[in-house]
Structures are given as structure tokens and as C-alpha cells.
Amino acid sequence: MNRSLSLSSPVRVSRFSVALCLVLILLLLSCARKEQAPQTPAGWVTGLEIEKRILLGEGISFGAAGAYEVLSGTVHYAADPASPLNERVADLALAAGEDGLVRYSADILILKPVEMGRGNGALLYHVVNRGNFDTRLLEAGPWAEVATSPSGSGESLGRLMKQGWTVAFSGWQDDLLSDKRLRLYAPLARRDGKPLSGPVLAEFGGGDGTTVAYLGAGGHRAYPLAPGTEGDAVLRAHQSYADPGTVISRDQWKFASLSSAGAERADSVNVYYPQGFAPGTTYTVSYTTSFSPVMGLAFPAVRELVAFLSSADTLNPLLDQSGASSIRYRLAYGSSQCGRFLRDFIFQGFNLSPAGGKVFDGVFANVPGCRRGFFNYRFAQPSRAGGFYPDFIFPFTDNPQTDPVTGFTGGIQAAVPDSLRPKIFYIHHTGEYWSSGAGLTHATLDGTADAALPENVRIYAFAGTAHGSARLQGGRPEPSARLLLPYNPNQANLLATPLLEALGRWVMFGERPPESSYPRVDAGEMVAAEDYAYPSVPDVEAPVLPVLHPRFDWGENWRDGVMSRALPKLGVLFPVLVPAAGEDGNELGGLRTPHVSVPVASYIGWNYPSSSYDGAATTTIASLSGGWLPFCATRAERRSRGDSRKSLDMLYRSRGDYLDKLRKACDGLVGQGLMFAEDIETVLDEGGSMYDFVAANGAWRPGGEWGMAAE
């Protein structure tokens, strides 16, 4: 096999001719001995093209690790469909070439010490979210300031560099449209020389009088309609994911788009509905495609790359000056979509390296909820989350459970031998409980008891956090017209970045991390959504309709990666378990940031879409959202409004008293290793500005001067 390291696009340094010469010499010296054919690995890196090398900050030193550089280019792979390690990859054998191997490639970006011997021996593989990465890595300039400035939780890369980490990023999605993102380049699965045909589902929301809808996820390639199958397609309108949908008559819509002049034109990746897609409604199109890239190569691509970067292979750019492998520890980080990727990576058995042993020693899965993803399927759409796609699927806990409805038994790590189990941190925000089933990762499936965690797992729930956070603007969350309530400004990275480093110390030094902290059923800190109670707050109704998740059935072989129906049959709903709220509207369980420990508001994990809100009884909450409900400023305002929460002047004697309490909360977290001292002043500045705003404006009122401004 020709394996090569290319230093730039037009120059390729080959090892094949050298290897061939050596073989011929050995044959001449020992012609009586017959050479034995080498064993074929499950998959391997066949070449690496380094197209650009960037020295960061003109060679400035990042502490003891010295100077850093970024390598960018392309990695090439071969995979053997006959290997047991690849048997889970959907349709892999259908993409093999004449030699029986599947060849593919991916974009790659590596952040490394110039002198690998000065690093700490640890590799962090950062799973890129929809191909995105920190674009500063393509510039030399910004890093001089990072190297010379104190780094808090908002500068995780800078902190890792000062500790000597190597960080790798690579493409794992084949459906990205932008060439500015890291992408996987997968071959097509073919039968009798033709791409596979089969059912696919497009899902989208309505609103603003839209009449044309794209069939793919935003910024991603859509599966095109197979020619001649237009008549079999079905458009449906759904009021929730527990609604099988109302079929829209085929004569009311067509596969088409509109030109800039408004002229209708035939189109294989858009649908045109002149009546307009209604706000608050979910639409699906079930249709047939004949385009079939092997999307499941995402998993072996990551497995092979990490194994290669920690090997002594002479193509490996991470070897030290002696030619030895400099990587002794391997961790993975993934957030949201990428946290789901890591849960699925472990569940499907890809943490076994082709060379034996673990691929990852540690895994940091940030805000995945209980979900996995639409990654390793025929006609997969990796960026689709929730909805009618296969990501909210049993099992949810790491230890095995049995679903009493389906009888299926499983666990994320149930089939993973102890020797291959990484140390895992799962991070949950409150929004993940309301929308992504986070409670099911640490409770029994009926929600009546807490589930035991394996010793290699920690779960940390950050109380009062949403999926992302709003920036503060004059002491209040930056306005948004999309949501009814002000968005939650509580920053989760205050706790997440220290915990990432704690995972590294657990893997590298055996330093025991903080114990798991999450809302527990036995302590009354987690309840079924229908039993959720919230303090009396004027103009605010607690949720009645969370995001619902039925047990779906995509056909007989869907667990093997082939779905015979695009729109699944609906089964019994999974329970929705959410953190219970205390008297101040903040959560009772989990880890608390300083702003939740010393609050000026309720920091909540739910909100409502402003465009379709018609009272809690008829409005499903906005998925993966959060809200901010400030307290009344004074006792008098509290009495006049009938707000059951204590007012600001009941909680704190003065602004100084508030800031003193806030600083003590920061000091406590720093002492536990859950916050960086570098972040204290930022927290105090944020807290002071929020205190001033609430003291001057009081509680939130719909339509008020500081309410939801137009975007």
C-alpha cells in the first residue's frame, strides 16, 4: 500500500519505493525464505498531506510547552469492510473498490507544541460541531496576547496550550456545504454500480409566511429527490413529535423553488407550498432519494486518526525528536451534537483501537442530553437533532436497563469491556432536561428512582443554565424577538472548563474528580414534568407542554442502520424528568454557578417561542432554551405584583452586601476546583451590572421597555 506524508499540496514524499527496495534486498539475501503476507488491519491512515504550517504568535512561548504551531491539511484512509471492527458501519462493504478496501479522506487541523518533547503527552481530540472550529487557529497574530494573558474559562485552548496539550480537529461529516469547515469525504454505497435508492425524511418549521422550504439542514447538503418518484412523496403538518401528522394534499405543493423575480422553477431539494408554512408547526416531507454516501465512516475516521496520532508511525507529525510517540493519553471533547457523537461512538463499540486497547482514555460529553445521533445510518443526516430522527433512542443510561414497553435491554457501556471503558464526564444544562431527556441518563426509565452510575462515569448538572447563554447588555440579557422571556445569561463555561481539566488530571494522574452532582429523585430534586411546580410570578406561566419524545419505529432493521420507513411509527412516550424549582424559582439540585447561588433572578431552563405563544396550556416550550426572570426590586413591588419570590431588598442589605456574598460563592467554587480564580472579577462585574439593572427596573413585564426588542 502506498502511504505518504505530503509537506505541501504539490509535493508528495512516498515511502512505497523505499519499502519495495528493502523487500527486494531481503529477498536476494534470503531467497530460500518465503515472505509472509502482512495482516490487514481494520483500517488505517494511508497518507497525510500537510498543506499549511502556521507558527503562532511568531514563536512566542506558551509556558513550559514553548512555541506552538498549527498544521492543516488532509488525512487519507483505507478501511476493510471484512474486519469485525467495521461491521457496525452501515453500507461499508457497498463502497469497496476492486481490492476490497474503502478509501476516503478528511480535512484535519492539529494544534501542537513545536517541540513535542516539551508537551505533556496528552492529546485532546475536539469533535467539531458541524465542521466549525476556532478560526483563530488559521491566524498567527491573536495568539501572542493569549500566551501573555491570564486565561479564564473563556480561553480553554490557551489554558490547554500552557499546560502542553496537543489538540486535533478533523472532519467527520460528509454533508457540509461550506469549504471553510472541516469535512469528511465519503464514497457512495453502490449496488450493481448504482447509488442506493430509498426513503428519506426532511423536517422543517414554518413561520413568517415562508412558502419555500429547503430539504436539508441549514448549511448542509440535502438528499435530492430521485427522478420519477415525485408522485410518491408526502408532505405532512405536525403539532408535536407525538403527532403522526396531517397529510397536505399533493396538488397543493410541489418540488420547486422561486427565482429572485418570483418565478416558479422545478427543484429537487426544495418544496414550494403557496399557502405558506404556518408558525409553530413542524412539517415533514417523506420522499425517495438515490444518493448514498457512507456517512457512518465518521466513526472509524475518528478512531483511525486518534490511533495514528498516538502511534510511532513515521508519518505521524507528533513524534518527538527521537522518533518516538509523544502521546501517552488521549481524551475527547464534544459539545451538543458532538457530545451525542461521543455517546454513540462508545455505544457502537468504536473505542476499540485497531491496534488493540482504548482509542480514548477520557471523554467529555458536553450537553448531549440522553441522546445519540443520526450518524451511522443509510441516508444519515448527522446535523439533524431530535424530531422524527433517530437520536432520542433507548438506551439512555450507561449501565443496562430494560425498556418495559419494548422489552429491549441495553446500556451505553453495557457491551463495552472494562478494559475499553474511558473515564467519562457528562455535562447537563437545565435546557437538556426539558428538551433532550437528560434526566433519563441517571434515573430509571419510569422516573421513580435514581439509576446507579458506573465508577468510570461522572454526571454534572449545572443548575439554572440553558443550551448556550445570552450576552449581558446594560445589566440584562441581550434582547431577542424569537423568545417570549428574556434569555438566560448564566454562563456554564465557568464550571465546564475547570471540569475538563479535572478530567485530564483523572486520566493522567489518577486524581479523583469531584463526585457527580445532579438533581436526584430520592431527594425530591427531580420530578416528572407534569408534577413541576413553580413559584407565583405574575405574567409567567410554568410549562405544561414540554418537548415530547415517543418511542419511534423506523422498520425492522433500523437498529442495524437501514430504515425502511422515513417517517417512523409512533409508540408510547418516554417520560420527561425535570429539575424541581425552589422558592426563588432556581433549581434545588446540581452544581450552582455563583449567579445561581447568590441570585438576583430566577435562571430557568425553559422559555416559549414568541411567535406562537398562546398561554402555557396550548404552547410547547421552545426547544433547548432558557429564561431569566429577575426578582422584584422592593418589598412594595413584590406585594403589589403578588410575586411569591423574595425581593432584592429582602435578600441583600445593599449592593456591597450582594457583592460580598457573590465573592464568597466564587471563593468556595475556586476552593473546590470548580472555578478559576481568573474568572472572579468577571463574575463580580456581571453580577454588579445585573444587580443595578434589577434594582432600577424590578421584575420583568411583557412588552416593557426592556422586554423583547426586535432583532
Nutshell version of this structure?
α11 runs antiparallel to α12.
Task: Explain the overall architecture.
This protein is of the alpha+beta class. It folds into three domains: 44-188 and 294-322, no CATH class; 197-289, no CATH class; 348-371 and 379-554 and 575-711, no CATH class. It has twelve helices and 33 strands. Strands 1, 2, 3, 4, 5, 6, 7, 8, 19, 20, 23, 24 and 31 form a 13-stranded mixed beta sheet that branches. The protein has a four-stranded antiparallel beta sheet with strand order 11-18-13-14, with no helix packed on it. Strands 9-10 form a two-stranded antiparallel sheet. Helix 11 packs antiparallel against helix 12. The longest helix is centred in the last third of the chain and has 18 residues, at 680-697. It starts with a strand and ends in a 14-residue tail after the last helix.
Layout: helices, strands, pairs:
Blueprint: E1 4-8, E2 11-14, H1 16-29, E3 43-55, E4 68-79, E5 102-113, E6 122-126, H2 143-148, H3 156-162, E7 166-170, E8 184-185, E9 190-191, E10 194-195, E11 198-205, E12 212-214, E13 234-238, E14 246-248, E15 256-258, E16 264-266, E17 270-272, E18 282-289, H4 298-309, E19 329-335, H5 337-347, E20 362-366, E21 401-402, E22 409-410, E23 423-429, H6 430-435, E24 457-463, E25 472-473, E26 476-477, H7 493-509, E27 526-528, E28 550-553, E29 569-573, E30 577-579, E31 591-592, H8 594-597, E32 601-604, E33 627-630, H9 635-641, H10 648-651, H11 655-671, H12 680-697
Parallel strand pairs: 1-3, 6-7, 6-19, 19-20, 20-23, 23-24, 24-31
Antiparallel strand pairs: 1-2, 3-4, 4-5, 5-7, 5-8, 9-10, 11-18, 12-17, 13-14, 13-18, 15-16, 21-22, 25-26, 27-30, 28-29, 32-33
Helix pairs in contact: 11-12
